[in-house]
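Appendix B: a complete holo record

For completeness, this appendix reproduces one full record from the ligand-bound portion of the collection. The bound molecule is fe (ii) ion. The inputs are the chain sequence and the ligand SMILES; the output is the full three-dimensional arrangement of the complex, encoded as structure tokens. No fields have been trimmed.
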Amino acid sequence: MSTVFLPVRIEFAPGRSGGIGEDLRGLGSRRPLVVTDPGVHRAGLLEGVLASLREAGETPVVFAEVVPDPDEACAARAAQRFREEGCDGILAVGGGSSIDTAKAAGVLATNPGPLLAYEGVNKIPNAIPPLAVIPTTCGTGSEVTNVTVITDEHHYKTPILSPYLIPKLAVLDPDLLKTLPPQLVASTGMDALTHAMESYTNRVQHWYAEACAMQAMRMIAEAIRPATVNRDPEAIGRMLYASTLAGVAFTLSRLGLVHAMSHPVSGFAGVPHGLANAVLLPHVMGYNMVGNPEAYAAVARALGVPDQGSPIRTAEAGVREVMRMNRDLGIPDRFEGLGVTREMFPAMIRDTFRSGNIPINPRVVTEADVARLYEAVLTGEAPV
Ligand SMILES: [Fe+2]
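The structure of the chain with fe (ii) ion bound, as generated:
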């Protein structure tokens, strides 16, 4: 079975966010709630967007209170502003937290709470207001996905999936990433690489997802170093495009053990999502590759690794390439020093197994395996 349902228009061009006013009119919105975080607001990234909206006769309302790892309260505040101000559409400008908050606020705008009652797949009864998204990082993919992730009071990153959460429009404007700090290009880019790799290697067979994932991995392997260390605008544009491709891939075929393990790391220790994935990725590749050596060998080749004579040896070389990539990007090789402690492990392991990505992981996972992996990644033990 292979369904492709992607009711999102994707526009890619430098400067394209300057046309967002007409886009919102096209979506039938005259008074959009602009959902963003204080950092994006301070960086001045909203100026062109708001000017375009006003030029098109829109009367936007700005909600710039998104927090990292947003919770239900954050989404509820945005939804309350939406109602009080009589908004009729939503525009998210920012990274994964802003986009996920915008989606969750949309759910609360047209559905009764509590939000977390919609955990899981296809639980949301009513469509959300028209949603347009302008990503300002090169990782999340949330501008094209059907999911929002909201942290509950027990630090659990709760996934809510519904076709209603797929935005109507994604505007990819690489000009907005010019001021993204290099460490965020690196960590959000590694999140995108993880999306592509998990989508490609997991047990879900989906030709469309595989094509998108493969192209995303090739583009990221070429572009992530120059985008991060040289701040090469062309490379940053390719990273942005690749992150959206990876988002398409995983919305069709989902993810795997890296995301199952990284959400608890962010939930309990506050490690940013992309960074948590980047540190975990070589470890989980080393663990998973025996479950699907051919797929991991194809991953290695996409990353530019020459064939090593057998799938498993090529896959191993792919793990070493990701370790090199992390080192070149200044990403640490362990969780030590990032706030993760052994005392968190039991709760982290419990939450890992709540993830819907566990049953589709390329290798059957046990609690002992996850405990061993968390220990190895805490201390920086070599993944292969
Ligand atoms: Fe992710």
